[in-house]
Amino acid sequence: MNDHRILNALSYFSILFAPVIVPVLIWIFAKSEDVTHHAKVALLTHIIPTIAGVLCFSSVFVTALTNGGLLANVSFFVTGSLFIFTLIAIVGLFIFNIVRGIQMLLTKNEEDAWI
């Protein structure tokens, strides 16, 4: 098995145990352009749910500080929408990373993989 495929798969599978740390380390220490490309993609797909989660929880905090009034219904709508978006982003990108990791292990040539 090619070492590049293992490192590529490890970048994506790291969502299970060290989401941001492993892709950053692989990106910094990898010698191959192919490996650094997949580490960057994995890092991006690990950071997006983190940013969405911070926005969601800050919105919940702001909504909790709003004690009724004219903007109460709007803030609850925005918070609910942001929570649903965050949940979809986290689940979708988690599945994407698992599928991409499996694909990296199963492909024989890099040209066979999408992205």
Detail the topology: elements first, then pairings.
Elements: H1 3-13, H2 21-29, H3 33-65, H4 72-106
Report on this model:
This protein has one domain (1-107). The chain has helices at 3-13, 21-29, 33-65, 72-106. α1 runs parallel beside α3 (33-65), α1 packs antiparallel against α4 (72-106) and α2 packs antiparallel against α3. The protein has 4 helices and no strands. It is mainly alpha-helical and 115 residues long. The protein is elongated, with a radius of gyration of 18 Å.
Q: Looking at the chains present, what oligomeric state does this protein adopt?
A: single chain
Give the overall average pLDDT.
Answer: 82
Number of domains: 1
Element order: H for helix, E for strand: HHHH
Main sheet makeup: none
Give unreliable regions as ranges.
Answer: none
Helical element count? 4
Give the DSSP E fraction (strand runs of 2 or more residues). Answer: under 5%
Return Rg in Å: 18 Å
Supply database-style keywords.
115 residues; mainly alpha; elongated
Question: What's a concise summary of this model?
Answer:
The protein is 77% helix and 0% strand.
